[in-house]
């Protein structure tokens, strides 16, 4: 059942959640999220995610050739590894060409690294949620502020568990036909999840990493850029599949992070640094902002009552 393009959760069936991401179908963030969702026995879970890492591909789509969908091994869910981008996966997953019905909610994540400020433009994780939003399906992107040396894969399970109250509250809003049509949510979780300061409603800021280019002599030089937009110089660089092979006379350049611009107090990045969970993000400022001002405090109260 739908209302003006938004699926309505019936009270007599489990809501369907479709999960995608940009780190790839084998990423621990997605796997942990799916395990936690399945363990609740409250949802029908589907997975449609890229077959390899697609971090920072933004909202790119595949246009010139077909994409493949290969069944993937997940316990308790129907899952496909797709040879496309996060936006491709979200679009295919809600199209009823792959799955028999439209999901009630699409979740993109859990991403390795935060997605605050202007980084939502680069993010394939946010694009997965945004693409579902384009198709009229309620959606959420989830990112964990991974820090090398502090974080470990078990933190993704804690992140997923911390998001359950939010997911349940959103599904309740959808069921009650009070979920806004012109926005989707971008949730960020702090590094130290067990000691988080609670849920915070914020606005998107303008924080961004300053990046540049460095000339290199081979594709293996310079370290690997992680999805956290930091460099891993210790591990081997994985050469991504490309349709072009550099010629001997080609100049090679590798992107590198040269600093960070943090601005705007009382925005997403600041509250994430302070240990709070989540921030809303909208692609339609007027409609979503009205809902935020009038109704989102009710969602926050619902979340608090479920914790």
Automatic annotation (TrEMBL):
InterPro entries: SurE, SurE-like_Pase/nucleotidase, SurE-like_sf
Keyword Acetylation: no
GO molecular function, one term: nucleotidase activity
Keywords on record: Hydrolase, Metal-binding
Database matches in Pfam families: SurE
Domain of life, source organism: Eukaryota
Keyword match Aminoacyl-tRNA synthetase: no
Domain Survival protein SurE-like phosphatase/nucleotidase residues, every copy: 17-208
PANTHER family to which the protein is assigned, alphabetical: 5'-NUCLEOTIDASE SURE (PTHR30457), PHOSPHATASE, PUTATIVE (AFU_ORTHOLOGUE AFUA_4G01070)-RELATED (PTHR30457:SF0)
HAMAP family the UniProt entry points to: SurE
Similarity remark: Belongs to the SurE nucleotidase family.
Name of the protein described by the UniProt record: Survival protein SurE-like phosphatase/nucleotidase domain-containing protein
Species: Citrus sinensis (Sweet orange)
């Amino acid at each position: 059942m739908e209302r003006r393009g938004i699926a309505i959760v019936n009270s007599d069936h489990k809501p369907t959640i479709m999960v995608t991401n940009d780190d790839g179908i084998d990423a621990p963030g997605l796997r942990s999220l799916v395990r936690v969702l399945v363990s609740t026995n409250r949802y029908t879970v589907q997975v449609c995610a890229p077959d390899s890492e697609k971090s920072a591909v933004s909202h790119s789509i595949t246009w010139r050739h077909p994409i493949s969908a290969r069944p993937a091994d997940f316990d308790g869910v129907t899952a496909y590894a797709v040879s496309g981008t996060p936006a491709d996966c979200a679009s295919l997953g809600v199209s009823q060409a792959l799955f028999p019905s439209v999901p009630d909610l699409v979740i993109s994540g859990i991403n390795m690294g935060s997605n605050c400020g202007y980084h939502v433009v680069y993010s394939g994780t946010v694009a997965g949620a945004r693409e579902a939003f384009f198709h009229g399906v309620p959606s959420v992107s989830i990112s964990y502020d991974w820090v090398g040396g502090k974080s470990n894969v078990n933190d993704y399970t804690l992140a997923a568990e911390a998001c359950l109250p939010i997911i349940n509250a959103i599904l309740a809003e959808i069921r009650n036909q009070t979920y806004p049509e012109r926005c989707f949510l971008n949730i960020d979780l702090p590094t130290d999840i067990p000691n988080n300061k609670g849920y915070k409603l914020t606005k998107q800021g303008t924080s961004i990493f300053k990046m540049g280019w460095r000339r290199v002599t081979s594709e293996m030089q310079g370290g690997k850029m992680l999805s956290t937009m930091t460099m891993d110089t210790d591990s081997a660089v994985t050469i991504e599949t490309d349709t072009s092979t550099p010629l001997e006379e080609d100049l090679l350049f590798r992107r590198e992070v040269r600093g960070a611009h943090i601005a705007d107090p009382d925005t997403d990045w600041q509250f994430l640094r302070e240990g709070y969970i989540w921030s809303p993000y909208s692609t339609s400022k007027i409609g979503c902002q009205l809902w935020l001002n009038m109704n989102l405090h009710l969602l926050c109260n619902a979340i608090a009552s479920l914790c």
